[in-house]
């Protein structure tokens, strides 16, 4: 995990920077796919503000901000908020892998394609020429059928050059 700390105030000590690095080093325990973490430490009108932005896999970001009278307390609060968000995101990923929540509306995920059954194949054995005729009548791009010679499944498809292709899968 790449950690970048920016201090927007004048400091003569590295103690706060070291403290912040130590606190954020525990975050991978809650979610191990943190790519980078940006920490901004600033003092504004006597208030100590810490902002943390975590960049996770799949372009997901988590943000936490805390403002108190003590800089160390601000760092602690921001880290705790980030921990809660990481645990929540990890739980969401775990639930999605198990099949998701049945109550939610189904939306296609970018991570895995959705399979939709469009049509079934023709069980009647036929030759490639007959399959091309059936393909032309159907208006589809391909047709799965059983070859009449050996009763193996075969695929005939329309090529971009106007010709037809034939796929004959065989076991070796």
Structure described in brief:
This protein is 28% helix and 33% strand. It has helices spanning 15-24, 71-97, 128-138, and strands at 2-8, 34-44, 47-56, 61-68, 122-126, 142-147, 153-158, 164-167.
Give descriptors for this structure.
172 residues, alpha/beta, Double Stranded RNA Binding Domain, SHC Adaptor Protein, 28% helix, rod-shaped
Plain-language structure description:
The mean pLDDT is 83. Helix 1 (15-24) packs parallel to helix 2 (71-97). Helices cover 28% and strands 33% of the residues. The protein is α/β, with parallel strands linked by helices and 172 residues long. The chain folds into two domains: 2-97, Double Stranded RNA Binding Domain; 122-167, 2-Layer Sandwich (SHC Adaptor Protein), CATH 3.30.505. It has a four-stranded mixed β-sheet with strand order 1-2-3-4. It has helices at 15-24, 71-97, 128-138, and strands spanning 2-8, 34-44, 47-56, 61-68, 122-126, 142-147, 153-158, 164-167. The radius of gyration is 29 Å and the shape is rod-shaped.
User: Biggest sheet, open or closed, and with what strands and sense?
Assistant: 4 strands, mixed
Derived structural class? alpha/beta
Strand order of the largest sheet: 1-2-3-4
Number of helices: 3
**Residue windows where pLDDT falls under 50 for at least 5 positions:** none
First and last CA, distance? 47 Å
- Give a count of the beta strands, DSSP E runs of length 2 or more: 8
Order of helices and strands: EHEEEHEHEEE
- Tell me the overall shape: rod-shaped
Give the mean pLDDT.
83
Write the CATH architecture name of the largest domain: 2-Layer Sandwich
Name the CATH superfamily assignment of the largest domain.
Ribosome hibernation promotion factor-like
Oligomeric grouping of the chains: single chain
How many domains, in number, for the residues? 2
- From the alpha carbons, calculate the radius of gyration and give it in angstroms: 29 Å
Percent of residues in helices: 25-40%
CATH topology (level 3) name of the largest domain: Double Stranded RNA Binding Domain
CATH class (first level) name of the largest domain: Alpha Beta
Strand percentage, roughly? 25-35%
